[in-house]
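Worked example 3 (structure in, sequence out).
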């Protein structure tokens, strides 16, 4: 798990598939139970005290796992949420995230067999099309920026596929 605290109200959680294998994202009760346990772990291990009302955007990817955006809504009656969490979920399922790269040359040939490479708006993007082992996936994640929003559709639709 990787945590990025963007500001006072926005936090991003990056969860690999190992963290989310048992979750049925179609079942709201499973999601609420999972998040309550996750918030307890964040408080215990990372000293993040999550309380109040949150809009939670969940982006799923069959190869990477899940990216979660937590946005705390500022409410007038803050003391009401002193020890309470209320959540609103939105789930966006993608077949694959994109990985924005500055350099392609670190990719080994066996990785190139598992990806499509796009060039769009002066950037290079990699889309995983076949399962990769953990080491290959780790190197890709280390050397890239994960793209997880609707911009993916633009890159896939208008980007030029590069053959190496």
């Amino acid at each position: 798990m990787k945590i990025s605290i963007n500001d006072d109200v926005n936090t991003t959680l990056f969860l690999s598939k190992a963290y989310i294998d048992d979750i049925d994202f179609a079942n709201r009760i499973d999601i609420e139970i999972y998040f309550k346990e996750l918030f307890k772990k964040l408080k215990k291990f990372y000293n993040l005290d999550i309380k109040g009302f949150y809009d939670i955007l969940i982006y799923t990817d069959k190869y990477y796992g899940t990216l979660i955006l937590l946005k705390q809504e500022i409410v007038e009656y803050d003391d009401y949420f002193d020890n309470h969490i209320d959540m609103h979920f939105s789930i966006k399922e993608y077949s694959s995230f994109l990985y924005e790269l500055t350099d392609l040359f670190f990719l080994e040939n066996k990785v190139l067999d598992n990806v499509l490479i796009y060039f769009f708006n002066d950037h290079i993007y990699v889309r995983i099309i076949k399962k990769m082992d953990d080491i290959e996936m780790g190197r890709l994640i280390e050397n890239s920026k994960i793209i997880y929003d609707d911009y993916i559709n633009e890159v896939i639709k208008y980007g030029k596929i590069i053959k190496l």
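Notes: DSSP finds five helices and ten strands in the chain. The helical segments are 17-20, 28-46, 109-112, 134-142, 151-158.
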